[in-house]
Amino acid sequence: MTTIKVGNQDATGFHPSGDGLIVDPSGVTQAVAPLIAGKADTTALTGKLDKTEAATTYVSLSSKGVANGVAALDNSGKVPATQLPVQGTGINPWAPNTAYTTGQQVVSPNNDVVSANANFTSGTTYNPANWTLSTSIPKRDATTGQWHFDVQQGSNNGTKLPFTSRVVDVNGNVVAEQINAKPTSDLSEGVIDWQHNSTYGDLIHLTAGAGMSSSSINAALIALGLDNGYPIGLFVNNKGHGDGTYGIGIKIAQNSTINTATQSYGFQVDQYSPTSPAIFLHQADATAPLMRLQADTSIASTGTALIEVIAAGGQKGIIRTKTGELYWLADVITHDGAGFLNIATGASADSNMTKQLSDGFNIRAYSGSAGVYYPGRISRSSGGLKMDVAPNTSGGPTWTGNTWQTGVSVKPGTAAPSTMIGTTAPATTATEGFPYMPAMAGAPTGVPTAQTGFVPFHYDTTNNKLWVYNGGWKSTTLA
Q1: Which domain holds residue 49?
Q2: If residue 69 lies in a helix (H) or strand (E), which one and from where to where?
Q3: Are 103 and 141 members of one domain?
Q4: Is residue 95 part of a domain?
Q5: pLDDT tens profile 208-236
């Protein structure tokens, strides 16, 4: 216990008003009377005030609220927020008349985290010229009390400071922890768990500042580098609730304010690998489509592209939004055994079908009985074309194993093509493979429509005459 004496009297306590000590008046009189009477030097009074403990036991008033001193208390008995470190960083506020070393970080009066430019001692007021704004360090909003990052271009001299995102009030008091760093013994997903449990707002909101421009094309708000092997850079596990509610794994809104056709993409992939595809889609369930492209029903223009392909030299093709048509300006190449199939709208596997192959067209006509078809084809042969048919059950729906029968062949000549009808060199006993001409019972009387370079003909089964029209009907009798 500390005892203070005035004269030969012990002080019995502090006056309730806080203005002095309570002592016996006679002791005070004895102590100060000689001083007043003799107008002695006031230093003599010091000798009359005797402390029984060393001076180092007491805290000087000048050490309150300054660096290397003690914290002051506000009128509520708490340490003011201005004297607390930035939450999660351990960085102290700037203080006047304090020695700082190069690179030492403090929180400036406007709540920026700054680094000292050199060794110096601060004055009575903050001077921004002595400090450099630190990068990747949180900043506290003086109004809302929330901490956020001000990331600016520049170097932080390799310094990496720890940061824990929290909800704090305007006085810097932690209201709730938002990030929980897990120990290595915890094998559950995520080293850091974040939970957004609100119907509005963002868990993380990053925006590009006004200082970014078209020259900042290689700058990123978030950058992931897979430099050491296999790990996944970004994993979105879209689980849903099973009750009809849903979530969107990744959503990009390409806003109408974008007024340039280049360098403003919602999603961009650059392929530099000679071996691995840039995009890989894996369908593990055949119930739902792997990918769906859907145009708004309000789009009226038939020329708008749902998908556009641009290659060297410009546009090569589009899929039209309004009609779904494939509009292509380049060759479409298929390999033998594969081609384009054209099936009747709404038809099942048993239906009419046209297939384009490398050497022609295959045509399949459905007979009406399951698995029975009438195949045909127009194909290239020896520099010409031929028209073939096959028995109705030959080849089935895939055209495999057909025994083709040629009915018409057209081959090029020196000046004009030659057309062959029927089977090549049929046997004298053949019952099939003949070309047929039109026949009627009696002499013809109609005037056929003229076709330049050609004349019509037919056979009169009543009179056994072969008729040919050449300005009129001419005939010859057949024996």
Answers
A1: 4-58
A2: none
A3: yes
A4: yes
A5: 877 777 666 677 888 888 877 777 888 88
